[in-house]
Amino acid sequence: MKVTVRKMNAFLKLRLPSAFLCGVKLRLLEDSRSVVTVRHRWINQNPFKSMYFAVQSMAAELSTGALVIKKIRESGQNISMLVTHHQGNFTKKAVGKITFTCSDGELIDGALQRTIQSGEGQTVSMRSVGIDEQGAQVSSYTFEWSVRLKPKK
User: What CATH number has the domain bearing residue 13?
Assistant: First the structure.
């Protein structure tokens, strides 16, 4: 089954309802990059009337994870994925529509190729940057993904 924006957003609705309710949406999924948006609303704000950091984290994670899922599916291999570490930096209050972009598709290609060839788990750090409607960076995240070939049964 091909991974598409529409299928990923349906997956959010069914399997990650908190992200769906907060308005996290995958907008673009290409070989090298993905784009996720989320709009500041009452349901996803903090007491300071900006977007809660956890909502930004969900959107940023999806921008990296969607690429990992797409690449695993395209490999045709039975590979597991897991976030092993993440870090976020915040530079401005997140209000309005925030767009998270990850352009690290090539990095996951290498990690998947290495795990398929060696059978050993691999890690890859992928970056996502959140930009507001004025073009200012509001946050940046790094997610470390672990990929591992699942044993044959």
Answer: 3.10.129.10
Question: Three-state SS string across 24-48, please?
Answer: CEEEEECCCCEEEEEECCHHHECCC
Determine the Cα–Cα distance for residues 34 and 101; give it in Å rounded to an integer.
6
Model pLDDT for residues 84-108, shown as the tens digit of each residue: 999 999 999 999 999 999 999 999 9
Residue 45: band (very low, low, confident or very high) from pLDDT cuts 50, 70, 90: very high
Largest pairwise CA distance in the chain: 52
| Total domains in the fold of the chain | 1
Q: Within a 10 A sphere around the Cβ of 28, how many other Cβ atoms?
A: 14
Domain range spanning residue 76? 5-149
